[in-house]
Amino acid sequence: MACLFPYCVVCVSPEEERRVRANDREYNEKFQYASNCIVTSKYNVITFLPVNLFEQFQEVANTYFLFLLILQLIPQISSLSWFTTIVPLVLVLSITAVKDATDDYFRHKSDNQVNNRQSQVVIHGSLQKEKWMNVRVGDIIKLENNQFVAADLLLLSSSEPHSLCYIETAELDGETNMKVRQSLSVTAELGDPNSLASFDGEVVCEPPNNKLDRFCGLLCWRDCKYPLSNHNMLLRGCVLRNTETCYGLVIFAGPDTKLMQNSGRTKFKRTSIDRLMNTLVLWIFGFMVCMGVILAVGNAVWEREVGSLFQSYLAWDLPVDNFLFSAFLSFWSYVIILNTVVPISLYVSVEVIRLGHSYFINWDRKMFCPQCNTAAEARTTTLNEELGQVEYIFSDKTGTLTQNIMSFSKCSINGHAYGEVIDLLGAQPKRLDFSSFNPLADPDFCYYDNGLLKSVKLGDLHSHEFFRLLSLCHTVMSEEKKEGELMYKAQSPDEGALVTAARNFGFVFRSRTPGTVTVTELGRPVTYTLLAILDFNNIRKRMSVIVRNPEGRIRLYCKGADTLLFERLHSSNNHLMNITTDHLNEYAGDGLRTLALAYRDLSEEQWEEWSERHRQADRATDCREDRLADIYEHIEQDMMLLGATAIEDKLQEGVPETIAILSLANIKIWVLTGDKQETAVNIGYSCKMLTGDMTEVFIISGNTVLSVREELRYSNYLYSSLYPSISLFLPLFALVINGHSLAHALEADMEGEFVSTACVCRAVICCRVTPLQKALVVELIKKHKKAVTLAIGDGANDVSMIKTAHIGVGISGQEGIQAVLASDYSFSQFRFLQRLLLVHGRWSYLRMCRFLCYFFYKNFAFTMVHFWFGFFCGFSAQTVYDQYFITLYNIVYTSLPVLAMGIFDQDVPEQRSLEYPKLYEPGQLNLLFNKREFFICITQGIYTSVVLFFVPYAILSHGTQGTGEPLADYQTFAVTTATALVIVVSVQIALDTGYWTAINHFFVWGSVGSFFTIMLAMHSQTLFSIFPNQFHFVGSAQSTLVQPLVWLTIVLATVICIVPVLAFRFLKLDLKPQLSDTVRYTQLVRQKTRKPAGRCMGGVRVGGVPEGRLGARGGFRRSGYAFAHQEGFGELITSGKNMRLSSLALANFASRHSSSWIDTLRKKKHSNTHPPQSGSGQKPHSNSTAVVQT
User: Fold this and answer.
1) Is the dihedral of CA 316, 319, 325, 327 positive or negative?
2) Could you tell me which residues are annotated as the binding site?
3) Given 256, 396, 535, 992, which residue is catalytic?
4) 532-578 residue pLDDT tens
5) Confidence of residue 235 (pLDDT cuts 50, 70, 90)
6) Which helix (H) or strand (E) holds 774?
7) Which residues define the annotated binding site for Mg(2+)?
8) pLDDT for 473-501, tens place per residue?
9) What is the rounded distance in angstroms from the CA atom of residue 875 to the CA atom of residue 866?
10) Is this model's pTM higher than 0.90 or not?
11) SS3 state of residue 511
């Protein structure tokens, strides 16, 4: 059978369509639909061990160490006991297994709790209790108030009037406001189990998919077909609210429900350090193989030339019968011995450090918001160091930079502007008291212009019609718990603000039914017949209602974006439109969100004709949305302009300072918003993204491919002509581009030009962009720039951007928690971003880099001693150290000090990190750990191994004890070398640690003490007498460490290893200090002098920035479009159902050479991103607007 709903399929499914017959399990079971039992757990008691081990050995590191363990079990090639590898491997596997088992236990617990919930199912005319897991497709379920919806249900009937029911969808989309659903009128009378038991309707619908906001289907019953939409559905995970009872038919159950279809895994993100480590580990493995080959060749040569002389009394062990086979076995033996250059403890330590950094973020009280009682949360532990390398921030505007708490600020009615209150004496304007005029007024509403209230009181017809429109043209739900106490449930803060304004000015929206809207107009209740709602969507950018007043007059009311609405006005409105446009420009200059309002009177004949066409389009089974859009377009013409509204969305606290500081850290900030260009630009100025001393602001607003290309090339020409002329400071540019132009700029043949232009700009503002475009812009920068990106937003429309960026940050704000659920980090205020990056991010990057540098150093110093020893032991794969020392070196003797450094270390205090944002730049340039730093670390480690081997070898080979006996024995040499190694690496980490805590002291010196304690115990007579075959170094430590010559050797080796490091660091500090060195020196100087007032950012002291209202600016400003609620609620109801501030320049607070190394690298990096000059050398023609700031 052909699929009836091809246009609705969202994800791949084996079903083409679903057929469900009510109350007929036998029929429905033929299709083998999934049961309502859900399983989110991964294991059971039988499968846990094999499946978990299989998953763990998918990791290359675990497989590698398992391979080494197998090699160690072969006695012919292993000179180390198997436990040197199996102990750490089993430890790592066990810890991971316990963690996985704990997580899965909670999943089992959650599954059992959900599956065993009770539901009431209609069976043979009566209600019977069934567990959720036993509910089947086709069952009819009764739901009661505050109950969770058990499966995806078709709503059949409800106890509420007009068969409405109210649901909360927080578990689905994070939205806490109530939504409304309604059943079909033909099933509304099925309100009791007996009538429901005889219901035999069949539903034909789309197959299971993950689209939460769409459902397509038909109900076939009594030889009629009724179209079904998402407004008739109750989805699993919703909660029934304010509805006594309702009944629903199960359409999708268990894993087929939309909730479960949306529970896919989030894409795993890896840091640049992780990717570099994978490369370095491969290099190290190759290096180890090369060393093994060299030593194996040496073994072959030695066995042939020298070893053959001993065959008569020291024959080869079986199965070795020639020197080549001996070399082959020697190679694998050295692979085992040299594997400690990359120990398994490296991966464990990295995860422990990241976990510690995540807890520091969670525990940071300075990122806690007391107003909303929300703390910062690190929702992942794998990306902390990446926070110290961010170069691009992509931010939403509304709710992220602004508060998303809307307030009615100004308006224009019939050419008269209201809302601007100026007191010539400078006194604070007095807030209007609405209570005496309107007992139903909202006491929290704040307004100051008495002229508007007078206009309403005097009976101005235009003012009355203005607020009447606001009280009728919306999808707000009203709840009145007791007389006069109204609570509005709005789909967006904008709508709530407008309806509340109308309420205070005497036009109070009281209630609605599917066919009526009741309003109290200046104390008189009026009920309007709601004929149609022409719903909002992102293409129409407007909504309309058609109502009939009690006198029978039919009128269409419309509100929407001025650019679209003005095109549909009657020609007689031109003069009023020009005046209103001027007002809109002023409002946009203040950074306000605006809407235009209009109406149209309809005759009965016009309404009847349009209504019939609307019914036909509404019943269409294909292209329904397009047909409805055409019908809406037909009626929304020749309208009369009423005026415009202006809503204020205030900036969040600390946004300007945060953006200024992040800009000083050379972080480029892009704002991706759905708001209009002019509003976004003014917000850009108010939050200091755009500043008065910027060299130029490029405006890209072309509507065709050619015009956008020409504007981009013109911007490139301006940049190229200005860049060489500025020698002391880099010019500051910004770019503003709208959604239409961006669509062309993102095309494959133009994206390169767009990136080259945008990336030389300090700030970029993309206006009128869709959620998909937000993700595409982030993906574009990831593709063309080797830079770390961060996306931050607060709404569902930011989820794709958050998931696409390297790091996603969610703000828990007014638009639900979808952004938080999709994010890697979350908090409640944008201002916390500076602390997340400049403090936690920079410290995490610094600590991880220092940890890795030291870790590779100490392990090369430890392992390479075996390589040098091979040339003196006949390449026999004999180890230098005692096997217990080899096992404990990375687990006990050196693990805790490096962990303490990796968790607690810091170069400068947190307040200095915020005062000097330039400290952040080494992370962006990846200076602290890269291939060059890696080779320096391993070179130092190899140098240390040379000293640790050859100094004791040279001294002890000719040394004697006080009794005259020689010291040149293997065990004495092993103890001396091991002791010198532990002391040298402990002194080295003491030098590397920049911030000492009690924990650091305890771990560093405690590790040295534990080494001597364990070694003396291992070499004691007691353990030898108990385990004579395991402890072969009996008495070695005791006899070796009492020799003065041994201690002289250890001290000499330590000095030779450490003195060059100290000399190099002192010279580097004196000749080429890093910025952090200069900051530490500056801090010492400050402590000896008075503390200056104010705050220093990048060397410049600045005071606070007043938050206040956004200052007006003229020029190219236009109105900002404010409309943020979701599409679809109109159909549901009618179915019955900114202060421009100077930028902060970084002063030369340090000597000129202190940051020259960063500047040099920065210039090299920028030289690769400068856009090419115009090939002909001619200035290209452009229609783009360039705003030059002087």
Assistant:
1) negative
2) 396-398, 495, 536, 559, 593, 673-675, 768, 774, 794, 797-798
3) 396
4) 988 877 677 889 999 999 999 999 999 998 888 999 999 999 999 99
5) very high
6) helix 771-784
7) 396, 398, 794, 798
8) 998 888 777 777 888 877 677 888 999 99
9) 10
10) no
11) strand
